[in-house]
Amino acid sequence: MGTAVDRFDDKARGLFDRIGTNDVYQGELLRHRPYTRFLHWMVALFFFLALFSGFGIYLPWLFRWFTPIFGGGALARSMHPWFGVGFCFFFGLQVLNWLEPMLWSKADTEWIRGLKNHVLKPEKLEPTETGFFNAGQKVQFWEITIGSVVFLITGIILWIGAGTFGRITVAVSYVLHDISALVMLFGIFIHMYLSTFGQPGTFHSMTRGSVAESWAWTFHPSWYKQVTGRDPRQAHEEARRQMETGRR
Ligand code: HEM
Predict the structure, then answer these.
(1) Is the dihedral of CA 142, 145, 151, 154 positive or negative?
(2) Atom 20, ligand 1: which residue's CA is nearest?
(3) CA 40 to ligand 1 centroid distance, Å
(4) Residue 186: left (phi > 0), alpha (psi -120 to 50), or beta?
(5) Residue 132 near ligand 1, beta carbon < 6 Å
(6) Minimum-distance ligand 1 atom for the alpha carbon of 196
C-alpha cells in the first residue's frame, strides 16, 4: 500500500512544483511544497463553505443571515452536502500526503506528558525531540481525520434520508454530525490562533511555503537538525549572542 500511495504523492507533488513556486531565501527553509499548500487551502475553503451553509440551515433563527451568501436557504441546503464532499475529498488527499510525518512517536508521548508544564511555564524553545509536526498538531490532524469519516458517514445518511435508513438512524446521525462539527470548530479556532499570532512566522509556511531558520529551531528543533545538520540549541545560542553583540 505504502508504495502506491508514495508514487501517487510524488507524482502530485512534482506536478504542483511545476505549477507553483518554492522560493526560499537566505536564512529560510522550505516547509510546505505547493501541493501541500493547495490541499490545505482547498480543505480550509470547503470547511468554511460547509460550516457557513450548515449553520444557516440547522440554526436558521441564529444564522439566517449566512444563507444569502449561497443564494438563499434552499440553495444553501442543496449545496451543503457537496461542500462536505469537497472537504472530505481534499482532506483525504492531505491524509495521504501527510501520513508519514503525522505518525505517532515516543517523543510525542513525552511532549503530551510535558504539556501541563508547557502551558503553565511556557519555554521559548520546544523540546529538542520535536520533529516536523509536534504532538498537538498530530492530535488535531487525527481528530480531523476521524471527524471527516464521521461527517461522511452521517452526512450520507442525512442526505439520503429516513426513507432508506429509518428515523432513529437519522436522529442519531444528526447528533453525531453536529458533535463532530463543534469539536472540529473548537480545534480550528485554536489552530488559527497558533498558526498566526500564537507562533509568529508559521502562516508564511502555508503562503510562500518557507519558514525562517529561527522559527524551525524554536518550534521544530529535531526537524531543523534533520534538514540542516546543525544543532538547534547551538544555533539559537549563536543567534542570541550575535544579537547581543550587535546591540552594543
Ligand atoms: C483559515 C484559517 C487557517 C489558517 C490561517 C491555517 C494555517 C495553517 C498553517 C500556517 C499551517 C502550517 C503549520 C506548520 O507548518 O507547522 C497549517 C497546518 C494545518 N492546517 Fe491549517 N489553517 C487554517 C485553516 C485550517 C482548516 C479549516 C483546517 C481543517 C479543517 C486546517 C487543517 C490543518 C492541518 C491538519 C494542519 C497540519 C497540522 C497543524 O499544523 O496543525 N487548517 N494551517
Answers:
(1) negative
(2) 40
(3) 7
(4) alpha
(5) no
(6) 5
pLDDT in tens, 50-103: 999 999 888 888 888 888 989 988 999 999 999 999 999 999 999 999 999 999
Q: Is the confidence at residue 247, as pLDDT, over 70?
A: no
Ligand 1 and 181: CB distance under 6 A: no
86 burial type by CB count under 10 A (0-12 exposed, 13-18 middle, 19+ buried):
middle
Q: What are the residue ranges spanned by the domains of the chain?
A: 1-99
Percent of the chain with pLDDT over 90: 82
d(CA 121, CA 195): 20
Nine-digit cell at 43?
A: 480543505
Nearest partner of 16 among 30, 36, 44, judged by Cα: 36
